[in-house]
Amino acid sequence: GAGADNDLYINQAVVFIEDAIQYRSINHRVDSKSLWLYRWYYSRTCQWILSLTITIILALAFVEEPSSLTVTSDVRYRLPAWNPPCGLTESVELLCFLVFLVDVSVKSYLIGWKEFWKNTWLMAYILTLTVSLADWIVSLSFSCTESLRIRRILRPFFLLQNSSMMKKTLKSINSTLPEMASVVLLLAVHLSLFTMFAMLLFARTKDNQQDKEWVVYFRNLPDSLTSLLVLLTTANNPDVMIPAYSKNRAYSIFFILFTVLGNLFLMNLLTAIIYNQFRGYLLKSVQSSLFRRRLGIRAAFEVLSALKETPGSAQQSCVSTGALQQVLQKAEMDSRCKQAILRSLKMCSCDQLSAAQFQKLFEELDKESIKQHPPSPEYQSHFMQKLQFAFGHPYFGYLGNVVALANIISICVVLVMDADKQPSERDDFFLGAINCFFILYYLLEMLLKILAMGLRRYLSYPSNRFDGLLTVILLILEISTFAVYGFPHPGWRPEFMGLLSLWDMVRLVNMLIVFRFLRIIPNMKFMALVVTTLLDLVKNLRAFAGILVVVFYAFAITGIMLFKGAVVPLGNTSCFIFQGKNVISWCSAHFQAEGIYCLLCLLSVNLICRWAKIYFVAWWLISSVIWVNLFVALLLENFIHKWDRRCHRESLSDIEYQRTVELMFR
Q: Where is the Ion transport domain positioned along the sequence (predicted)?
């Protein structure tokens, strides 16, 4: 009947509004059962279970053979890692696959058959799941003894397909590839030409003493290409030119030209191209997200206008305010936005809303409220009012910054004076006395600010919370020091007592005091701009960090399979990497690590044996060339946007919200 239809329209409007809030597509089933399933799928509990499942299946690599869960990564000293019995990790993996199977089934059902064939990500999801299940069956049939497990490399895909932002970022990289390819091709030509020149310039001569450059770096084409490729990353600079430079200073011209053309021109040109493409992508992404939001809100309006209670005599479609209130009560959205929309609805004198009025109400979703600080206490006493004015004035904060600077300088002076002294010769009286004085000042400053501003207003400022927390910690440490070692006095060098020695406690206090000096940042506008840009970057970095995890994980698993057993411990000597019977490369102490840590070291490029070069060059291209430049592009985009806002800042006294590109993008 009419009541059932009205309930369906209300539920459809609720789902469309939630789609608009989350920038989701409205192309999905909208019958009553599908709507219930849709809301259940996108509920916090369901999404949390899916995220936990992805985390678990990625974490399995740390306990599967070859496991890296040991205290030390040094192959000479570590104990054998725990090797789980066959079937344990496979059982956990099967449970994860079942969750993914339910996930892909629900997604496929909700979007419908027509949309399914258009969705390449969903088809890739099914293909990845099928291959992983087939590989899982092969593992069990071989009793977990097979060395190649394809499904381990495919695991990051489950993380990738679950994030719309990561998919958008990949689209950005894909759109940038044609322009990047031209510069990479130019780099390849640059590298090839200089390789040819190097082989001709440093050819073998009759004098073996003069052939050090040829022997070490330019013996053949692969070695020459590798030497110059590493020079392009500056990892072997200036080692690669030292033998030739020792022979004749003029040889340095060759290496200078190579570095200038490659590093200063071509690599920076690549950064400029990636930034230009990525900046356009950011704007397109914001436009696409806003369009989805407007579309979801308009869809909600259309279904609400079809309610039976809507007047049929109206010349244009309209929605009753009562129906909208029902939708807002059911929809999951930010309480501030909901209250703001309800307030605007009450202020509206009309009972029916047009499409334009309906859309305008939901502009509140695009707004970010500026936190209003609680009011300061109102004192009746004239003396208290003067105190409030004095200690609430910005100059009182500047005085605190000067005192903090004096504290830092005094600590530096003491550290310089005691740098070469033995612990038994050190007198901690002066350092302990100045710490006591400054901590008492910090405590007094905090109490006076609370008196002037009130506790609630004081705590509403992040800088005050930072100051107050460190002051309380410093006070507790200082009281603990006095309780264990007594008050500072000349020759204050007590023996070790308690959990920490006196010097350890004093050092901890001094480190916190140095950290507290960061309070000056909000008072320095340009420094504050840089810091807020970095903080905004961290907020917007989830998609980039996710793809970085995907790339690290895939390369780490591939590296484990390719180079398993390549690092051979030789007692207490350093380790070597072997190819056949030949020692290829000495592996330094910092290089004795597995998987992900190894790749972190290789961001600066350390190349080993010939066939391994392909793997590491691919890693360098993806991580250092493409990904680092994308990170620079995001950093520039955030900084330029902040700088433009700072230079053309409007007064915020008359408005209660900010609309930012970063917020919409996030």
A: 55-278, 398-639
